[in-house]
Design a protein that fits this description.
Undecaprenyl pyrophosphate synthetase, 243 residues, binds magnesium ion, alpha/beta, binds 3-methylbut-3-enyl trihydrogen diphosphate
């Protein structure tokens, strides 16, 4: 992979296009989601081989509740299957698994499975797999605001003590560094309520590939594009500073 990944710690991916992948083949959407899990496995493996520390994947959004009940339940079943089949290996490989999102409305067995996955991998430090599940960025911002307001109410914080750091720390993603790179597959150019706070200075890469087709080559392509970007954070490039 060369040094394309040298300065990149965190990739976030909006795994989109499962339905279209299935439709192109005359298959039910469920088949696209199943192949999407395979793409996730390939991507986790590929990321583990790099110096990356975090992979964050968007697997179910707070707006995906608008889909038919059968599709929602098949997406939940795929999370069940993924955790049941892959948790042991992830734990052995030193992967710390976190599931970020609202816990409300989730079936009890899913809640238990999330607890199990997080509990069994809590002490791992090799690599971080962050699964955004039942996640919506606006919900996350509202929950963070509530938590901060509560601290102000109890007198632990004064309104003037509220900083961007306090806000960041109050998020579900509080402990996780901001993504360096956000990739969205399937040729859509939107964020769909994903990590709006955290991607303030992330590089964005939109790819036409449908998620079930995604693999190491696509990851390399995205990292190659990232490597050519000049992250200025509002400042100047090194050369300009010297002039
Ligand atoms: C992404 O694929 C998976 C989820 C949103 C859960 P889609 O199901 O959105 O696939 P398209 O966008 O309809 O092709
Ligand atoms: C975003 O994809 C959510 C996930 C990939 C889990 P969607 O397919 O739900 O987004 P929209 O509806 O096209 O914006
Ligand atoms: Mg979609």
């Amino acid at each position: 992979m060369g040094d394309a990944s040298a300065d990149i710690k965190h990739i976030a991916i909006i795994m989109d296009g499962n339905g279209r992948w299935a439709k192109q083949r005359g298959l039910p959407r469920q088949a696209g989601h199943e192949r999407g899990v395979e793409a996730l496995r390939r991507t986790v493996r590929a990321c583990q081989g790099l110096s990356l520390q975090h992979l964050t994947v968007f697997s179910f959004s707070s707006e995906n509740w608008k889909r038919p009940a059968a599709e929602i339940s098949s997406l939940f079943s795929l999370l069940r299957l993924y955790v049941q089949q892959d948790l042991k290996k992830l734990a052995q490989d030193g992967v710390k698994v976190r599931v970020l999102g609202s816990r409300s409305g989730l079936p009890d067995d899913i809640l238990k499975l999330i607890e199990k996955a997080e509990g069994q991998t809590a002490h791992n430090t090799e690599f971080n797999l962050n699964i955004a599940f039942n996640y919506g960025s606006r919900d996350e911002l509202v929950e963070a605001s509530r938590a901060i307001a509560q601290r102000v109410k109890t007198g632990e914080l004064q309104p003037e003590d509220i900083t961007t750091d306090i806000f960041s720390e109050s998020m579900w993603f509080g402990e996780i560094p901001d993504p360096d790179l956000l990739v969205r597959t399937s040729g859509e150019y939107r964020l769909s309520n994903f990590l709006l706070w955290q991607i303030a200075y992330s590089e964005l890469v939109f790819m036409d590939c449908l998620w079930p087709d995604f693999g190491e080559e696509h990851l390399k392509d995205a990292l190659g594009i990232y490597k050519c970007r000049d992250r200025r954070y509002g400042g100047l490039t090194v050369n300009e500073t010297e002039n």
